[in-house]
């Protein structure tokens, strides 16, 4: 069985992320969503809360499993016996970064491949950083995150 992994911080997960997960699931029987725990990065939500958000948003999607990781992505890929990385691309800048990471990951884990999915026009402008800023200012985020996530955040279940 070919599985893929879609890594990220997902702080919080957005409708753009969910679109990529759904499209990856159409291509692969198993999609691991790898939630990065990077202590050097100041996240708005804890890893556990981000995992809960993704699990709620992906509740109806068979073949999607959420896992936390820290350290190198390729180490998690070895544990999961997974060699395919899914990345969503919004801009040319994303492409340049992902090309660099693809080469590095391929050197660290021979056989690792990166599959890039282009963001759809209705989601390409959505970013977690923009959503975090909206949250900080208590603005409406319902157009940018799944309903389950908006409900968690608006219900005071943050952090």
Automatic annotation (TrEMBL):
Q: What class of enzyme is it?
A: transferase
MF terms from GO for this chain are: ATP binding; pantetheine-phosphate adenylyltransferase activity
Which pathway is it part of?
Cofactor biosynthesis; coenzyme A biosynthesis; CoA from (R)-pantothenate: step 4/5
Which annotated residues bind ATP? 9-10, 17, 88-90, 98, 123-129
Q: Which chain positions carry the site (Transition state stabilizer)?
A: 17
Which cofactors does this gene product need? Mg(2+)
Q: Where does substrate bind?
A: 9, 41, 73, 87
Q: Which SUPFAM superfamilies match?
A: Nucleotidylyl transferase
Signal peptide residues are none
Q: Name one GO biological process term.
A: coenzyme A biosynthetic process
Q: What is its EC number?
A: 2.7.7.3
For whether the record's keyword set contains Chaperone, the answer is no
Q: Where in the cell is it found?
A: Cytoplasm
Keywords annotated in UniProt: ATP-binding, Coenzyme A biosynthesis, Cytoplasm, Magnesium, Nucleotide-binding, Nucleotidyltransferase, Transferase
Q: Where is the Cytidyltransferase-like domain?
A: 5-133
Any Pfam family: CTP_transf_like
Q: Which reaction does it catalyse?
A: (R)-4'-phosphopantetheine + ATP + H(+) = 3'-dephospho-CoA + diphosphate
- What is one GO cellular-component annotation here? cytoplasm
The family classification in the record reads: Belongs to the bacterial CoaD family.
Function of the molecule: Reversibly transfers an adenylyl group from ATP to 4'-phosphopantetheine, yielding dephospho-CoA (dPCoA) and pyrophosphate.
How the protein assembles, per its UniProt entry? Homohexamer.
The protein in question is named Phosphopantetheine adenylyltransferase
């Amino acid at each position: 069985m070919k599985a893929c992994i879609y890594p990220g911080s997902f702080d919080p997960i957005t409708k753009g992320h969910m679109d990529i997960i759904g499209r990856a699931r159409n291509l692969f029987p198993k999609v691991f969503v790898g939630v990065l725990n990077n202590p050097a990065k100041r996240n708005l939500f804890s890893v556990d809360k981000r995992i809960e958000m993704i699990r709620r948003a992906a509740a109806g999607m068979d073949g999607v499993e959420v896992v936390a990781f820290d350290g190198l992505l390729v180490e998690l890929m070895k544990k999961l016996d997974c060699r395919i990385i899914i990345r969503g691309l919004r801009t040319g800048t994303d492409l340049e970064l992902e090309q660099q990471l693809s080469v590095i990951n391929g050197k660290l884990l021979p056989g690792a491949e990166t599959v890039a999915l282009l963001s759809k026009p209705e989601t390409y402008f959505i970013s977690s950083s923009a959503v975090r800023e909206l949250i900080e200012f208590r603005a409406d985020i319902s157009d940018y995150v799944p309903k389950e996530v908006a409900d968690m955040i608006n219900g005071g279940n943050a952090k």
